[in-house]
Amino acid sequence: MSLLARPLRAAVCAIVALSGFLAAGPAAADPHGCGSAGPARRYVVAFDQGTTEPAARDQVGTACGTLSGYYPQIAVAIVTSPDPAFAERMGPDRAFGAQTTRLAAHRAGGGAGQPARTRLRPGDPSGVPTADLSGQQWDMRMIDAPAAHRITGGSRDVVVGVLDSGVDPDHPDLAAAFDAADSAGCLTGIPDPSPAAWQPTTSAHGTHVAGLVAAADDGKGITGVAPGVRIASVKVIDDRGDADPEAAVCGLMWAAERHLPITNSSWFVNPWSLSCVRGNDRGVVHEVLARAVEYATRQGTVNVAAATNEAVDLTPSPGSGSPTSGAGKCEALPAGLRDVVAVSAVGADRVKAGYSSYGLGVVDVTAPGGEKNHCVVSTVPGGYAPLCGTSMATPHVAGVLALLKSAHPGYSAAELRQALETHATPIPCPDDYDLTGDGTQDAYCDGYDDFNGFYGHGLVDARSAVALPGTGLPTRAR
């Protein structure tokens, strides 16, 4: 997994997120022959649609596992098992364990794995600088957010779920917007609404993302795209910077069941070293996430996700209709899923950032993520800091959607997405994309002016998005 932010020039590694959940009943007795090779590890298991919780529990027990929880709406289970053969018993096309995969990779590499990060020290809200940093917010001016705020700053009836590493609820720029009742921790794949489960512990990433969505418009610090809306912390990134597929499902399902109209996912699920790795296990991850996203969309949630910082072409390969076909195809999850709004990043020059992945038919819109010495300033525990990445581009889009939902509370998920894309500013493919000046193109942009692999439908436009026909407000001339 990987967090999709870069502090100035450096890439910050991390990542990934679950509700509508049934706590599992007593597990069946272990069948004869179950083995144990240490502590129980978690797995996500996809069952046939319509499978009941008792039937799922019986199948899991037969394969030497214990059902920890079940999402009957999408027939996905969270399972623990100490038996190293559990996934094989269950079927590699049905079960996947990120913990087991990482352990095997660490053993093969001869390493001890990624060390735990230094824990964050709780910030003193009274010590947060109060200087007005709006002059540094080139990103907000790029998407015309200040002009949008003269129309609306958003409604408190709109809650954006920040699926990330946790959000600081006490930061002065976020405290008024924070929604504890809709917050939860999803690190185990099972939603936990206790504050200890959703607060940040080792990473400022989620707090930075949250500020770009909804930091207060109070003349202090920064102002978010939609300063009048609320935010919920849905923690999906653990203390080592990892998040697993079951955590991603948990976060998406929690948002759907809480009827959050928008979620922000500035991460990608990837238990492997590269997002281009193929295999049956990747098919399981694709399937469970696709089910969760489809369910959330039906419930009215628009899921927005970063295209990743891997600078790879995500365009589907010919004949790659299934998640395990088409060798060489890279798939970013959840950004690559059909019902997700995938976001690429541009720098201050409105050109695709070198780190940003891209792909015709995958990228839907673009937004400012920063590049080199022009990163995006936002909130962090104890203050403010600049970060670059598709992680930063994505909450600009979530914020514009929050403004849209505020202006049009009756809009469905499909209508919100259509309005977002319709009012984006098209950016044509660049004639020359040689960022290093060595005479070689660093990436190739396919498509046409109004829709292409670098920018999708274009740069999101906050003002035009809220000044829609029928509101009595002027729209920008194109």
UniProtKB/TrEMBL annotation:
Transmembrane segments: none annotated. Residues 1-29 form the signal peptide. It comes from the Bacteria. SUPFAM superfamilies: Subtilisin-like. Pfam families: Peptidase_S8 (PF00082). Residues 156-457 form the Peptidase S8/S53 domain. The active site is at D164 (charge relay system), H205 (charge relay system), S391 (charge relay system). Residues 107-133 are annotated as: Disordered. Gene3D superfamilies: Peptidase S8/S53 domain. Keywords: Hydrolase, Protease, Serine protease, Signal. The keyword Acyltransferase does not apply. Coiled coil: none annotated. Belongs to the peptidase S8 family. This is S8 family serine peptidase. It comes from Amycolatopsis ultiminotia.
